[in-house]
Amino acid sequence: MSAAPAIQLRGVGVDYGRKTALADLDLTVERGETLALLGPSGSGKSTALKAVAGFVRPSRGRVLLEGRDVTDLPPHQRGIGVVVQNYALFPHMSVAANVGFGLRARRAPRAEIRERVAEVLDLVGMSAFADRSPRQLSGGQQQRVAIARALAIRPAVLLLDEPLSALDAALREEMVGELLRLRAELPDTTIVHVTHDQSEALALAHRIAVMRDARLVDVGPAREMYRTPRTEFTAAFLGAANLLPVEVVEVDGEGGATVRLGDAIMRARVSGELDGRRRAVLGVRPQRVGVHAEGTGGLPARLLAAQWRGEVFRLDLRLDGAAHSGQEVRVRAEVASIEGLPPVGGRVALTVPDGCPLIADASPEEET
Ligand SMILES: Nc1ncnc2c1ncn2[C@@H]1O[C@H](COP(=O)(O)OP(=O)(O)OP(=O)(O)O)[C@@H](O)[C@H]1O
């Protein structure tokens, strides 16, 4: 058993011609850990995964698996299982033959292949489909087979590249449950899961690494990243938080702060490094914004739009400019009822609860 981390990326960069798809990435994933690589389209998530798998050769940096430098090894010598978005099953082979493919390529004895194929098909609940052709399976079933195929070689590392994104919403929910069960049954397997779906990342990952423009923006335990995001980008991407400009009135020594938003004073949790700044942003999730009839206290605002989304109403609002040096501040809110509120165009009062994360006001654009 090795004490070295399952995966280490040391300054790994990937260029395609003059385009940098991955800037020098330093990232360590421990054995048995599930890490989600989360970020918008084109942020470099898949490229990072391909560098681990060996499907792209880094332009610089080294990739280590359990302490061993594998940068120059081809994919099939890395002992990694990979599942991609579009299943990529061999259509002319049965389910069992697909699952046994990697073992046959390694010239494993036939009896062992049979036993192992049965075992992993059972693990993903697909034993009854062993003799079917992939064409006779639904999308979810094909993805289960693809996962079984990746697991058949008993990989120390399982890489998942948007494995659920081709499935419909209900099936995705079900597969998240399946992946959680798998994770529990394979406690030593290290999983890196690429997704742009924050709820998937929160459900499945121990840690989340947030990527943007080929760079790692932030990495940390899933719960911490959600509750106390250190950057505006993480707050906005992971939980769709409103980023409201506030004045920092006072910071106490225990991670708390008093802030002013317009005429309202509230308590906040210091989440990023403030470095003595007087201006910062408060990350306020739409579900936490209170919207009330005018004259009930709270911050004066105008209701710009309301959409009924079944469980909730999504409201677009604008805070009164005067309180924010003339700057227009838009706010999104999600409320269960709009009873007592004026029609669109009317004036309302907003409340923001105590305890929201306070983040230094320094997006990467402003730093450069
Ligand atoms: N083979 C390639 N040749 C040239 N450019 C590429 C190649 N592969 C990726 N890129 C570019 O590198 C950047 C990062 O791509 P990557 O696929 O890693 O992003 P991603 O975060 O996984 O996005 P998505 O969620 O859309 O898959 C993108 O701008 C992409 O266009």
Architecture blueprint of SSEs:
Blueprint: E1 7-16, E2 19-29, E3 34-38, H1 45-53, E4 60-65, E5 68-69, E6 80-83, H2 95-105, H3 110-123, H4 139-151, E7 157-161, H5 169-185, E8 190-195, H6 198-204, E9 207-212, E10 215-221, H7 222-227, H8 232-237, E11 242-251, E12 256-261, E13 264-270, E14 279-284, E15 290-293, E16 299-308, E17 313-319, E18 329-335, E19 347-351, E20 356-360, H9 364-367
Parallel strand pairs: 3-8, 3-9, 6-7, 7-8, 13-20
Antiparallel strand pairs: 1-2, 1-4, 4-5, 9-10, 11-12, 11-14, 12-13, 14-20, 15-19, 16-17, 16-19, 17-18
Helix pairs in contact: 2-3, 2-4, 3-4
Bound molecules: adenosine-5'-triphosphate.
Adenosine-5'-triphosphate binds next to β2 and α1.
Account of the 3D structure:
By secondary structure, this protein is α+β, with helices and mostly antiparallel strands. The protein folds into two domains: 7-227, P-loop containing nucleotide triphosphate hydrolases (Rossmann fold, 3-Layer(aba) Sandwich); 233-367, no CATH class. Helices cover 24% and strands 35% of the residues. It has nine helices and 20 strands. The protein has helices at 45-53, 95-105, 110-123, 139-151, 169-185, 198-204, 222-227, 232-237, 364-367, and strands spanning 7-16, 19-29, 34-38, 60-65, 68-69, 80-83, 157-161, 190-195, 207-212, 215-221, 242-251, 256-261, 264-270, 279-284, 290-293, 299-308, 313-319, 329-335, 347-351, 356-360. Residues 363-368 have low confidence and may be disordered. Adenosine-5'-triphosphate binds at residues 16, 19, 21, 39, 41-47, 196.
